[in-house]
Design a protein that fits this description.
By secondary structure, this protein is of the alpha+beta class. The chain is built from three helices and eleven strands.
Length: 273
């Protein structure tokens, strides 16, 4: 309850700061020197809490399901130890290991290993490039000034994001593909010439405003507001940890060894006949 009240208070402070930045005629202070967004320290733990109504995801065709109420907060915790990052949430545990990510899903004893990926949305992180999802639009061009948030001076950036989960984006892209197929079918009726199918979905058409507050001293994000009318709030909490390297669990080490062996076998030139 206490944390919820703090988050609500922080949201109100951010909304006030956002309104102040939008005041007509207000001068924007020069962008201070230094990085716009830092990576977390080599040994660190941070938690990301996202609250609010998600984007209006397209409902499946012929669905009679009632609209969902505001979902509970989504909490993801990351532990960084050198080059290893462990991501933990109710959806499972993910070990990010340079080129690989090893995922443990609830109820599945065998992990899933896959190439490190993500970073093109607000919900997955490509740790080869950054430590935070959905902030790759931060730039000198999107800088809007300095504001106080939670007692800290923050750089403020305003831009646009796609506030859809990967599943929601898949639904949108599927609907665009279905529409292209239907259009082709209608054009070909009566012996007409079929049109060229275009399955491309332009993600820029579903982008919505966002505002992020970056701590002026650490250059790490403190809060992100995004979605229609800033309907979603993402808050970042940080804590230091002892500089002790993480030890890979046997299941993770085995999965990585098997994948490395598989890649080695695939790259080996074929034996002469």
């Amino acid at each position: 309850m206490k944390k919820t009240m703090l988050l609500i208070a922080a949201f109100l402070v951010a909304a006030i700061a956002s309104a102040q930045l939008a005041t007509p005629g207000a001068s924007i202070p020069p962008l201070p020197p230094g990085p716009l967004l830092n990576r977390t320290p080599e040994y660190c733990r941070w938690t990301v809490v996202t609250e609010g109504q998600t984007a209006n995801a397209p409902k499946p065709q012929k669905s009679t399901a009632a609209p969902k109420s505001t979902p509970p907060p989504k909490k993801v915790t990351y532990t960084k130890s050198g080059s290893i990052i462990v991501e933990e949430s109710p959806s499972g545990q993910v070990w990010h290991l340079s080129n690989f990510q090893v995922t443990f899903y609830p109820g599945r004893p065998v992990p899933l290993i896959s190439p490190e990926s993500g970073g093109d949305d607000l919900y997955t992180v490509d740790f080869s490039r950054a430590d935070f999802a959905g902030l790759n639009w931060i730039s000198p061009e999107t800088y809007k000034g300095i504001a106080s948030l939670q007692g800290r001076q923050c750089l403020v950036f305003q831009g646009k994001v796609t506030p859809w989960t990967p599943l929601e984006m898949y639904q949108l892209e599927s609907q665009a593909s279905d529409a292209a197929i239907r259009a082709n079918f209608e054009a070909s009726k009566g012996g007409g010439r079929p049109t060229e199918l275009n399955f491309h979905f332009d993600r820029s058409t579903v982008m919505e405003p966002a505002i992020v507050y970056i701590d002026l001293q650490s250059r790490l994000p403190i809060m992100l507001l995004f979605g229609k009318d800033n309907s979603q709030t993402r808050t970042y909490f940080y804590e230091s940890i002892a500089p002790v390297p993480l030890t890979l669990p046997p299941a993770v080490a085995q999965a990585v060894a098997q994948e490395q062996q598989r890649e080695s076998d695939l790259s080996r030139p074929p034996a002469p006949p």
